[in-house]
Design goal:
Length: about 100
């Protein structure tokens, strides 16, 4: 249920940003080879990932049944979710390997 609540928050945030005219970051605009590290990836963010440049992602939260984990498998993008502390351990510019 926790993952479904995150999905509802994602949709709510997107609707509000559209109503208010606020632009959200667009992961489809990534134009260099990267591994995304963050607290979480929303289903809409995961759906926009450019497989050509996104080599993988790792998040602090999430589980095997989270939408981002399910979508990563279908998109064949390596992912590690639920690490609890990846954002404290990895800094921008670090070279990492995601084997998930």
């Amino acid at each position: 249920m926790k993952e479904r609540a995150a999905d509802i928050r994602d949709v709510s945030k997107r609707v509000l940003s559209h109503i208010l005219g606020v632009e959200l970051p667009n992961p489809s605009m990534i134009d260099e080879s990267v591994v995304i590290v963050g607290n979480d990836l929303t289903p809409s963010d995961t759906a926009q990932l450019n497989k050509e440049f996104v080599q993988g992602f790792a998040t602090n939260i999430g589980g095997r049944t989270s939408h981002s984990a399910i979508m990563s498998r279908s998109l064949e993008i390596p992912a590690i979710v639920g690490t609890k502390s990846i954002t404290q351990e990895v800094k921008q510019g670090d070279m990492i390997i995601v084997d998930g």
